[in-house]
Design brief:
Mean pLDDT: 78
CATH superfamily of the largest domain: Rhomboid-like
Strand order of the largest sheet: 1-2
Radius of gyration: 34 Å
CATH class of the largest domain: Mainly Alpha
Distance between the termini: 69 Å
Strand content: 5-15%
Length: 330
Protein backbone atom coordinates (compact mmCIF):
# COMPACT_ATOMS: atom_id res chain seq x y z
CA UNK A 1 0.00 0.00 0.00
CA UNK A 2 1.18 3.56 -0.54
CA UNK A 3 2.15 5.36 2.65
CA UNK A 4 2.93 8.97 3.34
CA UNK A 5 6.01 10.24 5.12
CA UNK A 6 7.20 8.05 7.94
CA UNK A 7 10.27 6.38 9.42
CA UNK A 8 11.91 3.43 7.72
CA UNK A 9 11.85 0.56 10.20
CA UNK A 10 13.56 -2.74 9.44
CA UNK A 11 11.67 -5.76 10.73
CA UNK A 12 13.60 -8.53 8.98
CA UNK A 13 10.80 -9.33 6.50
CA UNK A 14 12.94 -9.37 3.36
CA UNK A 15 14.12 -12.98 3.87
CA UNK A 16 10.46 -14.02 3.98
CA UNK A 17 9.86 -12.22 0.68
CA UNK A 18 12.88 -13.93 -0.89
CA UNK A 19 11.81 -17.35 0.39
CA UNK A 20 8.23 -16.95 -0.81
CA UNK A 21 9.35 -15.69 -4.22
CA UNK A 22 11.78 -18.60 -4.63
CA UNK A 23 9.10 -21.12 -3.65
CA UNK A 24 6.58 -19.70 -6.13
CA UNK A 25 9.10 -19.71 -8.98
CA UNK A 26 10.35 -23.19 -8.10
CA UNK A 27 6.93 -24.81 -8.33
CA UNK A 28 5.87 -22.82 -11.40
CA UNK A 29 6.36 -24.36 -14.84
CA UNK A 30 7.01 -20.95 -16.35
CA UNK A 31 9.30 -18.43 -14.68
CA UNK A 32 8.10 -14.93 -15.67
CA UNK A 33 11.26 -12.80 -15.87
CA UNK A 34 9.63 -9.35 -15.91
CA UNK A 35 7.87 -9.95 -12.60
CA UNK A 36 11.13 -11.13 -11.05
CA UNK A 37 12.97 -8.09 -12.44
CA UNK A 38 10.38 -5.70 -10.99
CA UNK A 39 10.60 -7.32 -7.56
CA UNK A 40 14.40 -7.20 -7.70
CA UNK A 41 14.41 -3.54 -8.78
CA UNK A 42 12.09 -2.45 -5.97
CA UNK A 43 14.08 -4.45 -3.42
CA UNK A 44 17.46 -3.11 -4.58
CA UNK A 45 16.21 0.47 -4.48
CA UNK A 46 14.99 -0.11 -0.93
CA UNK A 47 18.24 -1.76 0.22
CA UNK A 48 20.45 0.81 -1.56
CA UNK A 49 23.63 -1.33 -1.82
CA UNK A 50 26.87 0.62 -1.91
CA UNK A 51 27.65 -0.12 -5.56
CA UNK A 52 24.30 1.42 -6.59
CA UNK A 53 24.43 4.35 -4.22
CA UNK A 54 25.69 6.84 -6.86
CA UNK A 55 22.85 5.91 -9.21
CA UNK A 56 19.90 5.79 -6.79
CA UNK A 57 18.66 9.19 -5.59
CA UNK A 58 17.52 9.45 -1.97
CA UNK A 59 13.85 9.20 -1.19
CA UNK A 60 13.65 12.92 -0.37
CA UNK A 61 14.26 13.67 -4.07
CA UNK A 62 11.63 11.31 -5.47
CA UNK A 63 8.52 11.73 -3.30
CA UNK A 64 5.42 11.93 -5.49
CA UNK A 65 4.27 15.47 -4.79
CA UNK A 66 1.87 16.98 -7.35
CA UNK A 67 2.85 20.54 -6.46
CA UNK A 68 6.58 19.94 -7.00
CA UNK A 69 6.03 17.87 -10.14
CA UNK A 70 3.94 20.59 -11.78
CA UNK A 71 6.08 23.45 -10.52
CA UNK A 72 9.45 21.99 -11.51
CA UNK A 73 8.27 19.65 -14.28
CA UNK A 74 10.00 16.96 -12.27
CA UNK A 75 9.76 13.69 -14.23
CA UNK A 76 12.08 12.01 -11.75
CA UNK A 77 9.45 12.31 -9.04
CA UNK A 78 6.74 11.34 -11.52
CA UNK A 79 8.27 7.99 -12.46
CA UNK A 80 10.73 6.93 -9.74
CA UNK A 81 8.44 7.49 -6.76
CA UNK A 82 6.61 4.24 -7.60
CA UNK A 83 9.76 2.19 -6.90
CA UNK A 84 10.43 3.57 -3.40
CA UNK A 85 8.85 2.24 -0.20
CA UNK A 86 8.73 3.22 3.43
CA UNK A 87 10.05 0.35 5.48
CA UNK A 88 10.10 -3.38 4.86
CA UNK A 89 6.41 -4.07 5.65
CA UNK A 90 5.41 -1.60 2.94
CA UNK A 91 7.84 -3.15 0.44
CA UNK A 92 7.05 -6.78 1.28
CA UNK A 93 3.28 -6.28 1.13
CA UNK A 94 3.51 -4.65 -2.30
CA UNK A 95 6.00 -7.17 -3.70
CA UNK A 96 3.93 -10.16 -2.59
CA UNK A 97 0.95 -8.60 -4.31
CA UNK A 98 3.07 -7.99 -7.43
CA UNK A 99 4.31 -11.59 -7.34
CA UNK A 100 0.78 -13.02 -7.30
CA UNK A 101 -0.62 -10.70 -9.98
CA UNK A 102 2.48 -10.65 -12.15
CA UNK A 103 2.88 -14.41 -12.40
CA UNK A 104 -0.70 -14.80 -13.58
CA UNK A 105 -0.69 -11.95 -16.06
CA UNK A 106 2.80 -12.44 -17.47
CA UNK A 107 2.25 -16.17 -17.95
CA UNK A 108 -0.98 -15.49 -19.82
CA UNK A 109 0.16 -12.46 -21.87
CA UNK A 110 3.83 -13.09 -22.49
CA UNK A 111 6.75 -11.15 -21.07
CA UNK A 112 7.00 -8.48 -23.78
CA UNK A 113 3.35 -7.48 -23.62
CA UNK A 114 3.31 -7.65 -19.84
CA UNK A 115 6.33 -5.33 -19.63
CA UNK A 116 4.71 -2.81 -21.95
CA UNK A 117 1.48 -3.04 -19.97
CA UNK A 118 3.29 -2.33 -16.68
CA UNK A 119 5.00 0.67 -18.28
CA UNK A 120 1.64 1.93 -19.55
CA UNK A 121 -0.06 1.45 -16.20
CA UNK A 122 2.80 3.19 -14.38
CA UNK A 123 2.52 6.28 -16.56
CA UNK A 124 -1.28 6.24 -16.53
CA UNK A 125 -1.65 5.77 -12.76
CA UNK A 126 0.83 8.53 -11.96
CA UNK A 127 -0.75 10.82 -14.55
CA UNK A 128 -4.31 10.22 -13.38
CA UNK A 129 -3.27 10.83 -9.76
CA UNK A 130 -1.64 14.10 -10.77
CA UNK A 131 -4.74 15.20 -12.68
CA UNK A 132 -7.04 14.28 -9.79
CA UNK A 133 -5.03 16.24 -7.24
CA UNK A 134 -4.82 19.27 -9.52
CA UNK A 135 -8.55 19.14 -10.26
CA UNK A 136 -9.44 18.94 -6.58
CA UNK A 137 -7.28 21.97 -5.92
CA UNK A 138 -8.95 24.00 -8.66
CA UNK A 139 -12.58 23.07 -8.03
CA UNK A 140 -12.81 22.16 -4.33
CA UNK A 141 -11.54 23.82 -1.19
CA UNK A 142 -10.46 20.54 0.42
CA UNK A 143 -8.19 19.62 -2.50
CA UNK A 144 -5.15 21.44 -1.09
CA UNK A 145 -3.96 18.56 1.20
CA UNK A 146 -4.01 16.13 -1.74
CA UNK A 147 -2.09 18.53 -3.98
CA UNK A 148 0.73 18.93 -1.44
CA UNK A 149 0.74 15.31 -0.26
CA UNK A 150 3.94 13.23 -0.35
CA UNK A 151 3.61 9.57 -1.33
CA UNK A 152 5.68 6.67 -2.63
CA UNK A 153 5.04 3.04 -3.49
CA UNK A 154 4.06 0.64 -6.26
CA UNK A 155 0.43 0.47 -5.14
CA UNK A 156 -0.98 2.53 -7.99
CA UNK A 157 0.34 0.03 -10.52
CA UNK A 158 -0.84 -2.88 -8.35
CA UNK A 159 -4.40 -1.54 -8.22
CA UNK A 160 -4.31 -1.13 -12.00
CA UNK A 161 -3.04 -4.71 -12.40
CA UNK A 162 -5.86 -5.93 -10.17
CA UNK A 163 -8.39 -4.21 -12.41
CA UNK A 164 -6.90 -5.80 -15.53
CA UNK A 165 -6.61 -9.23 -13.92
CA UNK A 166 -10.22 -9.31 -12.73
CA UNK A 167 -11.83 -7.47 -15.64
CA UNK A 168 -13.33 -10.61 -17.20
CA UNK A 169 -13.78 -12.66 -14.03
CA UNK A 170 -17.24 -13.89 -13.01
CA UNK A 171 -16.03 -15.31 -9.69
CA UNK A 172 -16.15 -13.92 -6.17
CA UNK A 173 -13.16 -13.09 -4.01
CA UNK A 174 -12.49 -12.15 -0.40
CA UNK A 175 -11.15 -8.70 0.44
CA UNK A 176 -10.22 -8.38 4.12
CA UNK A 177 -12.93 -10.87 5.02
CA UNK A 178 -15.60 -9.30 2.77
CA UNK A 179 -16.80 -11.42 -0.17
CA UNK A 180 -17.28 -9.31 -3.31
CA UNK A 181 -17.40 -9.98 -7.08
CA UNK A 182 -13.82 -10.21 -8.37
CA UNK A 183 -14.31 -7.44 -10.90
CA UNK A 184 -15.12 -5.02 -8.06
CA UNK A 185 -12.36 -6.23 -5.73
CA UNK A 186 -10.15 -3.21 -6.42
CA UNK A 187 -12.93 -0.81 -5.42
CA UNK A 188 -13.66 -2.77 -2.23
CA UNK A 189 -9.97 -2.81 -1.31
CA UNK A 190 -9.72 0.92 -1.98
CA UNK A 191 -12.38 1.83 0.57
CA UNK A 192 -11.51 -0.86 3.13
CA UNK A 193 -7.83 0.14 3.20
CA UNK A 194 -8.83 3.77 3.53
CA UNK A 195 -11.05 2.93 6.49
CA UNK A 196 -8.73 0.65 8.44
CA UNK A 197 -5.15 1.54 7.42
CA UNK A 198 -3.95 5.01 8.43
CA UNK A 199 -1.64 7.08 6.30
CA UNK A 200 -2.42 5.60 2.89
CA UNK A 201 -2.72 7.67 -0.26
CA UNK A 202 -6.34 7.57 -1.37
CA UNK A 203 -5.70 9.41 -4.63
CA UNK A 204 -2.75 7.14 -5.45
CA UNK A 205 -4.92 4.04 -5.18
CA UNK A 206 -7.87 5.65 -6.95
CA UNK A 207 -5.56 6.78 -9.75
CA UNK A 208 -4.41 3.18 -10.17
CA UNK A 209 -7.97 1.89 -10.50
CA UNK A 210 -8.88 4.55 -13.04
CA UNK A 211 -5.63 3.85 -14.92
CA UNK A 212 -6.56 0.17 -15.16
CA UNK A 213 -10.00 1.03 -16.52
CA UNK A 214 -8.49 3.48 -19.01
CA UNK A 215 -5.95 0.90 -20.13
CA UNK A 216 -8.67 -1.67 -20.77
CA UNK A 217 -10.55 0.94 -22.77
CA UNK A 218 -7.47 1.70 -24.87
CA UNK A 219 -6.65 -1.96 -25.28
CA UNK A 220 -10.15 -2.66 -26.59
CA UNK A 221 -9.72 0.14 -29.13
CA UNK A 222 -6.56 -1.55 -30.44
CA UNK A 223 -8.28 -4.88 -31.23
CA UNK A 224 -6.70 -6.84 -28.42
CA UNK A 225 -3.14 -5.65 -28.82
CA UNK A 226 -1.30 -3.65 -26.24
CA UNK A 227 -1.35 0.12 -26.89
CA UNK A 228 2.35 0.54 -26.25
CA UNK A 229 3.23 -2.40 -28.50
CA UNK A 230 1.01 -0.95 -31.21
CA UNK A 231 2.62 2.47 -30.74
CA UNK A 232 6.11 1.01 -31.06
CA UNK A 233 5.09 -0.87 -34.19
CA UNK A 234 3.67 2.34 -35.64
CA UNK A 235 6.88 4.23 -34.88
CA UNK A 236 8.90 1.44 -36.44
CA UNK A 237 6.75 1.51 -39.55
CA UNK A 238 7.14 5.29 -39.80
CA UNK A 239 10.92 5.03 -39.48
CA UNK A 240 11.12 2.29 -42.10
CA UNK A 241 8.80 4.05 -44.56
CA UNK A 242 11.58 6.05 -46.33
CA UNK A 243 13.59 2.85 -46.78
CA UNK A 244 10.61 1.01 -48.19
CA UNK A 245 9.90 3.94 -50.52
CA UNK A 246 13.46 3.99 -51.86
CA UNK A 247 13.43 0.24 -52.26
CA UNK A 248 10.26 0.40 -54.32
CA UNK A 249 11.60 3.36 -56.29
CA UNK A 250 14.77 1.58 -57.42
CA UNK A 251 13.31 -1.89 -57.71
CA UNK A 252 12.82 -3.06 -61.26
CA UNK A 253 9.22 -3.40 -62.26
CA UNK A 254 7.91 -6.90 -62.58
CA UNK A 255 4.69 -8.04 -64.15
CA UNK A 256 2.26 -10.40 -62.53
CA UNK A 257 3.34 -13.87 -63.62
CA UNK A 258 0.79 -16.50 -64.59
CA UNK A 259 2.16 -19.69 -66.06
CA UNK A 260 4.57 -18.70 -68.83
CA UNK A 261 2.86 -15.44 -69.75
CA UNK A 262 2.37 -12.15 -67.99
CA UNK A 263 -0.29 -9.46 -67.72
CA UNK A 264 1.24 -6.01 -67.95
CA UNK A 265 4.74 -7.46 -68.20
CA UNK A 266 7.59 -6.69 -70.54
CA UNK A 267 6.07 -6.29 -73.99
CA UNK A 268 9.26 -5.58 -75.91
CA UNK A 269 10.88 -9.03 -75.72
CA UNK A 270 11.72 -10.60 -79.04
CA UNK A 271 10.01 -13.89 -78.18
CA UNK A 272 6.83 -12.44 -76.71
CA UNK A 273 3.59 -12.06 -78.65
CA UNK A 274 0.29 -10.53 -77.63
CA UNK A 275 -3.04 -12.26 -78.19
CA UNK A 276 -5.29 -10.16 -80.42
CA UNK A 277 -8.37 -11.29 -78.50
CA UNK A 278 -7.49 -10.95 -74.84
CA UNK A 279 -4.20 -8.92 -75.00
CA UNK A 280 -2.40 -11.57 -72.93
CA UNK A 281 1.40 -11.64 -73.44
CA UNK A 282 2.47 -15.18 -74.30
CA UNK A 283 5.80 -16.95 -74.46
CA UNK A 284 7.28 -16.84 -77.96
CA UNK A 285 7.34 -20.63 -78.50
CA UNK A 286 3.55 -20.94 -77.98
CA UNK A 287 1.29 -20.96 -81.02
CA UNK A 288 -1.89 -20.72 -78.97
CA UNK A 289 -2.82 -18.14 -76.34
CA UNK A 290 -2.40 -19.63 -72.91
CA UNK A 291 -5.22 -17.47 -71.56
CA UNK A 292 -8.03 -17.77 -74.08
CA UNK A 293 -6.85 -20.42 -76.57
CA UNK A 294 -6.79 -18.12 -79.60
CA UNK A 295 -4.22 -19.07 -82.24
CA UNK A 296 -1.20 -16.88 -82.72
CA UNK A 297 -1.75 -14.43 -85.59
CA UNK A 298 0.84 -13.04 -87.99
CA UNK A 299 4.60 -13.42 -87.65
CA UNK A 300 6.75 -13.17 -84.58
CA UNK A 301 6.67 -10.11 -82.43
CA UNK A 302 3.78 -8.37 -80.79
CA UNK A 303 0.45 -8.26 -82.54
CA UNK A 304 -1.61 -5.11 -82.47
CA UNK A 305 -5.11 -4.84 -81.02
CA UNK A 306 -7.84 -6.31 -83.27
CA UNK A 307 -9.77 -3.85 -85.30
CA UNK A 308 -12.84 -6.02 -85.91
CA UNK A 309 -15.35 -7.76 -83.69
CA UNK A 310 -13.97 -11.17 -84.79
CA UNK A 311 -10.53 -12.73 -84.54
CA UNK A 312 -8.59 -14.57 -87.20
CA UNK A 313 -10.56 -17.77 -86.49
CA UNK A 314 -13.88 -15.98 -87.00
CA UNK A 315 -14.97 -16.32 -83.39
CA UNK A 316 -17.10 -13.57 -81.87
CA UNK A 317 -15.48 -11.45 -79.15
CA UNK A 318 -18.03 -12.63 -76.56
CA UNK A 319 -17.06 -16.23 -77.22
CA UNK A 320 -13.39 -15.37 -76.86
CA UNK A 321 -14.11 -13.68 -73.55
CA UNK A 322 -15.98 -16.75 -72.35
CA UNK A 323 -13.05 -18.97 -73.28
CA UNK A 324 -10.72 -16.66 -71.50
CA UNK A 325 -12.76 -16.79 -68.30
CA UNK A 326 -13.09 -20.57 -68.46
CA UNK A 327 -9.36 -21.03 -69.03
CA UNK A 328 -8.37 -18.59 -66.31
CA UNK A 329 -10.67 -20.30 -63.83
CA UNK A 330 -8.61 -23.47 -64.13
Amino acid sequence: MEVRIGRRVSRGMLPLLALHTFAEYYRSDRKPPVTAALIAANTLIHLRPSFLEPFIPPIDQVWFNPHLIVKNKDLKRFFLSAFYHIGEPHLVYNMLSLLWKGMQLETAMGSAEFASMVASLLALSQGVTLLLSKSLLLFFDYGRPYYYEYAVGFSGVLFALKVVLNSQSENFTQVYGVIVPSRYAAWAELFLIQMFVPGVSFLGHLGGILAGLLYLRLRGGYSGSDPVVSLMRGVGAAVNWPLRFLRRLFRSRRGRISGRGAVGGDRTGRNAWRCQACTFDNWGLLNECEMCGTRRGGSGGLASFPRSRRDSDGLPVDELRRRRIDRFAR
